[in-house]
C-alpha cells in the first residue's frame, strides 16, 4: 500500500455516510463484502507460498496487509449498520448470508443447506470468499450464459444435439455479426 494513500478514518467515514440514502448504504455494504471476499480469496491463494522452509516474504507481507484492510472494511460495515439502525431502519435486510447463518445458529435454527442454500464441500470446508454468495459462477452454453445450478440442456435443436464444434460456432458467430451489421448499420459494443 502506498504510504501517501492513507485510508479515510472511521470518523470521517461515519460522517460521510450520514447524508446518503439507505439504498446507497446497502450498496456500500455489498461493495465492502465483495472486497472482503476477494481479499480472503487472494489470501487463500497466497497461503501455500508462505509455508515451508523458505516462505516468500512478499506473500507473507501481502497477507498481513490484506488482513489489515479486511479489518478496516469490517469496521466500516459496522459503521454502516450503526447508521442504518440510528435512522430507525432494520439492518436485517443488509445482513450478509454469513451473518444470517450465525444468527440462525444463535437462535437454534439448523443450517441444513449451508449458507445461501449451498452445502459445504465434502470435507466440510469452503472458502470464505465463496460463502456469502458474493461470487457466482457460470459458463457459456450454446452462446447463452448459464449460471451454476441452472439446467445445461441444449436450448437449440440441430444435428449435433444442440452442441456446436469450434468451427460451427465460428461460422454461426460470423453470420450473426453480419446480420447485426446489416440490420443496425454497424456493430455496437
From TrEMBL:
<feature type="region of interest" description="Disordered">
    <location>
        <begin position="147"/>
        <end position="189"/>
    </location>
</feature>
<dbReference type="GO" id="GO:0070682">
    <property type="term" value="P:proteasome regulatory particle assembly"/>
</dbReference>
<dbReference type="GO" id="GO:0030674">
    <property type="term" value="F:protein-macromolecule adaptor activity"/>
</dbReference>
<feature type="compositionally biased region" description="Basic and acidic residues">
    <location>
        <begin position="163"/>
        <end position="189"/>
    </location>
</feature>
<protein>
    <recommendedName>
        <fullName>Translation machinery-associated protein 17</fullName>
    </recommendedName>
</protein>
<dbReference type="InterPro" id="IPR038966">
    <property type="entry name" value="TMA17"/>
</dbReference>
